[in-house]
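Example 3.2
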Amino acid sequence: MNDLILLTDIPSKVQKASVKHSLNKVQTKALARLEQVSDRVFQDVTQKGCLPLKDQNNHLLTTPSLNEFSAREIQAFAEDIEKTNLKNQQKIDTAQREFPTQIKIAVMTRLGIPLVRIAQRLNIHRETISKYAKKTQGLFNNIHQDFKSGTSIPDIAQKYSAPQPLVWSVIHQEKTDQERFKALNWGLRAWDNWYFNDYSQCQKHAILLLISTVHNCFSPKHSIILHFFNILCLKKISPIAKTFYFL
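Structure, written as tokens:
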């Protein structure tokens, strides 16, 4: 007969499992420890009614029922699970510290930035950059494989802690611009089909301010920004715009 007296420090689901498998008090406390370590393993153990022990070849052993294990054996099993979880978490933490650098290098690589300049920007030794570059190609291959297997773009991005634009760039890198636009459901229209002349003068200022700002980011200072502005039919440039362009 089960000798469990309801204990306030033991979760109800552990108490129910104890009654189901006829565990004594010390066995129940050991099982509660397992539940704290891993709820998934606890559910697996209580459903199957035994501990999933493995041999040296990682094969499952035939084990007795749960109530035939001593409290010490259940406790030792819980401690092994805890150690395994700790090691796995340490691996994840290490990967998370290294991966942002890997992702930065991957993004810069897709932008066509030479490895020498990437090393300078990230303040990383050239030999280290070369090692990352090899991993980057492996990352791109993994992204391709996941996409071909039907994994969605958001899931791929989450899996590799990568921005979605990088994932899109990788899977469409062999395509032409027209093919990329089609794959992304983007429309391609000539400038005169955007009905630009239907906008008011104020709206034109706002649109061209945006275009010129982007252009300015990739152009030498005091370059063709104002000429670019004038050829798009703006007769007057606001003082604010003039000030902005020469900052």
